[in-house]
Amino acid sequence: MKLVIVDELKEGMILGEDIVGKYSILYASKGTILNKNIIDGIKRLGIKYIYVIKNKDDDDVLLVDKKLDKEYRRTLDYFKNVYFNVKIGKKIVVDELQEVVQPLVNEVKNSINILNRLKQMEINDLYTYKHSINVCVISTMIGKWMNFSQNELNEIAIAGLFHDIGKSKIPNEILNKAGKLTKEEFEVMKSHTLEGYKILKNTDCISDDIAYGALQHHERIDGKGYPNGLKNDQIHIYAKIISIADIYDAMTSNRVYRNKTSPFKVAELIFNDSFGHLDPHIANLFLKGISQFYVGNIVKLNNGEVGEVILVNKNNPTRPLVKVKDKYIDLSKNYSFEITDVIL
């Protein structure tokens, strides 16, 4: 990372720090790839020097992306084998697990914009598999933002990876049902948390913390979750983190019974749930963290118009300022508009 005079900025450089304008409004976040519009905006802010990382075409930046992609796919292949083996009654081999998870954790720690990378990965596979890897990655990302130690990051990654391993014991006709589950079917589905806990507890060298992460990831701080209706500090911190990663990835993914929801809308739902269902500290840390990736996104609004996210208000990160052609729409002030999709 180096300090550069603003007049010497070039398209393709990557910001090494957040750019904040008046009223604490985030103009461009660390990790943003600069284009002409963003550079012009930085100049208008009157800033003289900023830190940049590398040009987006530099070999080492491309190498980071390739490494992340490689470790993601490697973990996906590993998990598919484990899932099948568990389904037929075999145990998880922990030595192999550590060899696979550790490199993925390292790549998540090094990645500048992990959510954007997940979105760009074109992998056609069963939802159950991709969802487990994505929750692993997102949970690790949250753990990084919470300043977890290396050992804690490894554990939250494993807990995220296996949070739904109990679904290997759920009948396929329920697990893959396209329509709404009946009350009886939902009770069977809910048992995946207990089944996952049993599997992990019977796995050598898997800590109780990891097992509780799987067991409690559907618990809610108001006591309205399952399987035990736990509240607040009764819920393990790993489970609180995984619950947010689980909701975010599930709702932003296409499912057999519904289309994906805009990440901005999901972020709003997580914000609203932070007042009762989800841990407010972790939820707000997550929302603050992902907001740094918003600036520069090309988005579609509910009126069909397409625009670019220009500014993010730190006090209301889920409703940014969007430029549509020659006009600006401030979603934090005009609630008739919503972002329905992220195009790029």
Condensed summary:
By secondary structure, this protein is of the alpha+beta class. It has helices at 36-44, 59-87, 94-110, 114-120, 127-145, 150-161, 172-175, 183-190, 192-201, 208-215, 237-251, 263-273, 280-291, and strands at residues 2-5, 13-15, 19-20, 25-28, 49-55, 298-301, 306-313, 321-324, 327-330, 339-342.
Description:
By secondary structure, the protein is of the alpha+beta class. The protein has helices at 36-44, 59-87, 94-110, 114-120, 127-145, 150-161, 172-175, 183-190, 192-201, 208-215, 237-251, 263-273, 280-291; strands at residues 2-5, 13-15, 19-20, 25-28, 49-55, 298-301, 306-313, 321-324, 327-330, 339-342. The two termini are 26 Å apart.
Strand content: 5-15%
Tally of extended strands?
10
Tally of individual helices? 13
Q: Characterize the overall form.
A: globular
Uncertain stretches: 55-64
Supply the helix-strand structural class: alpha+beta
SSE succession: EEEEHEHHHHHHHHHHHHEEEEE
| Fraction in helix | 40-55%
How many whole angstroms does the radius of gyration measure?
A: 21 Å
Cα separation of the termini: 26 Å
Largest sheet: 7 strands, antiparallel
| Overall pLDDT level | 87
Quaternary structure annotation: single chain
